[in-house]
Amino acid sequence: MEDRPITDKLVTSADWEPLIVAFFCNWCTYTAADLAGVSRMGYDHNVRVIRVMCSGRVDPQFVLDAFAHGADGVLIGGCHPGDCHYVEGNYKTLRRYYLLKRVLRDLGIEEGRLRLEWIAASEGEKVAKTINEMVEQVRALGPLRLTRRFKEWDAELASIEAQARSEEVATHA
């Protein structure tokens, strides 16, 4: 994924296009995406696919990092439950997905910006449909604008640090 420059410049709705980072399991969803491409099934160009050996290898930090570097949405695709090549990788993904949903909600990031789909290698059409749906959903949500939130969080942290320092000084005085 290319880094978007961190800027506070307002992007007008006319020139903004959502960027979706997709982590696809090598054995199922990535193969389905390949099938969609070979079969000339059209899907939005706004997705950047990252192939991982198993959806269970998608560390929550990867998702947070994608958002921090400019992604407006993150899509995780894995094998259907019971079909994982690593037996239980997708169950691990499911647990992490629900954890991430909570973390993102606490950070003020809309729930619709993260999606998990089980897509088998033979479901190229489902990949195209899922990507198109997600792009439309994120387009409706608008730009994430995390840089503004970074500034708010930095100001909040600076305030907390200043308060802690003043309390420490009062304690030792």
Ranges where pLDDT stays below 50 over 5 or more residues in a row are 5-9
Share in helix: 40-55%
Taking all Cα atoms into account, the compactness measure Rg is: 19 Å
**What order do the strands of the largest sheet run in, or round the barrel if closed?**
2-1-3-4
CA distance, first residue to last residue: 52 Å
Major sheet description: 4 strands, parallel
SS content category? alpha/beta
What pattern of helices and strands is seen along the backbone? Answer: EHEHEHEHH
| Global outline | elongated
What is the average per-residue confidence, as pLDDT, rounded to a whole number? 89
How many β-strand runs? 4
Please state roughly what percent of the residues sit in beta strands, choosing from under 5%, 5-15%, 15-25%, 25-35%, 35-45% or over 45%. 5-15%
Question: In oligomeric terms, what are we looking at?
Answer: single chain
Our count of helices gives 5
Feature tags:
173 residues; alpha/beta; 4-stranded parallel sheet; 5 helices; 4 strands
Characterize this entry briefly.
This protein has 173 residues and is an alpha/beta fold. The protein has helices spanning 29-38, 60-68, 89-106, 124-141, 146-172; strands at residues 20-25, 47-52, 73-78, 114-118. It is built from 5 helices and 4 strands, in the order βαβαβαβαα.
